[in-house]
Amino acid sequence: MSKIVKRHPRDSFMIATKLPAWELKSADDVERVFNEQLERAGVDYFDFYLLHSVEDGNNYDTYVKYDCFNWCMDRKKEGKIKHFGFSFHGSPELLEEILDKHPEVEFVQIQLNYLDRTNPVVRSQKLYEILRDRNIPIIVMEPVRGGMLANMAPEIEEKFKNRQPEKSVASWALRFVGSLPGVMTILSGMSSEAQMEDNLTTFKNFEPLADDELATIDEVTEDILSIPQIGCTACKYCCDGCPMKISIPDVFRTINTLRRYPDDWRSKNFYQGVVQRHGKAADCIACGQCESVCPQHLPIIELMKEAAEILDK
Ligand code: SF4
Ligand code: SF4
To answer: Ligand 1: which of 245, 284, 303 to mutate, most ligand atoms within 8 Å of CB?
Structure first.
């Protein structure tokens, strides 16, 4: 970072960073962390400064406890912050509450992509509407859902490929968020030069989605959501009695994601972490203990066979 600062005039680039709630153990830590960030970046101001991961409970409570919203606005008055906002992972109710209390916030970063529009946990559509109602610029995170919307089942990807063989599947996800009014910036994680080239191509000559393309996205969304999921509620009633110490709900969580996104490396990594501490799906000896206690009456033995085929070969 310092090298960039040395090689280019400060007003020729923009730097964004965030205040992490989990680093704050006292009010003094707010200033300490901020000053360390300035020093590490080699700058005397940040263009965009965010409270990191505001969500119901812990993080938000910490920011309130140490008066971080007002503290950041004071730094803005001093010119050390040019634009102040926060990244958000909480409920629509909390978002409304914060914006009522802090109308001075200049932008909000939310998880937004075509699949999470109706996700009951993320509730992207609702968050988006709240920000639009208040005319607050939006920074989008997870537009490709951690790469999942670039790696779907072949029969689903075909719907995009049939329409635009030369365009990547990921480009549809980026164009979806890029076509939404109010979106100021789209943050897309990239793990290869090819992905970066592809994203640059998408935005160089940006084409907003036409209505019939939006209909294709709706169709793909429905296809993905209609892939059957294992109805495990993660109650863990089955876990203690498993003689092979298999973390059954974690196996099902992995399989549910992989049924929708067969190449999702994050789920595979997650499973590898699980089996370092627990048995693997292939260890199942079909004793039936789990099935006898599962309130959802899941055919766990059969599902373990499916999981072992996918995860343990
Ligand atoms: S059937 Fe398999 S998963 Fe279920 S308790 Fe027995 S060993 Fe564990
Ligand atoms: S008992 Fe059934 S629903 Fe509960 S965690 Fe085990 S598999 Fe899932």
So the answer is: 284
Domains, the chain, ordered by start: 2-223 (3.20.20.100), 237-311 (no CATH)
Name the residue among 191, 298, 221 with its Cα closest to residue 255.
298
Q: Which atom of ligand 2 is nearest to the CA of 237?
A: 1
| pLDDT digits 0-9 by tens, 203-252 | 998 999 999 999 999 999 999 999 999 999 999 999 999 999 999 999 99
- Rg of the Cα trace of the chain? 23
From the CA of 66, how far away is ligand 1's center (Å)?
48
Instruction: Compute, in angstroms, the gap from residue 281 CA to the centroid of ligand 1.
Output: 9
Length of the chain: 313
Percent of the chain with pLDDT strictly greater than 90: 83
| b/e map 70-82, b = 16+ CB within 10 Å | ebbeebbeeebbb
Supply the residue whose CA is at minimum distance from atom 3 of ligand 2.
Answer: 232
Nearest CA to ligand 2 atom 4: 235
Is the minimum distance from the CB of 237 to ligand 1 under 6 angstroms? no
Question: What average pLDDT does the structure give for the chain?
Answer: 93
Range 92-110 burial, b when 16+ CB lie within 10 A, else e: bebbeebbeeeeebebbbb
CA–centroid distance, 192 to ligand 1, in Å, is 40
φ, ψ (nearest 5 deg) of residue 48? -130, 125
Strand-pairing partners, residue 88, are 54, 110
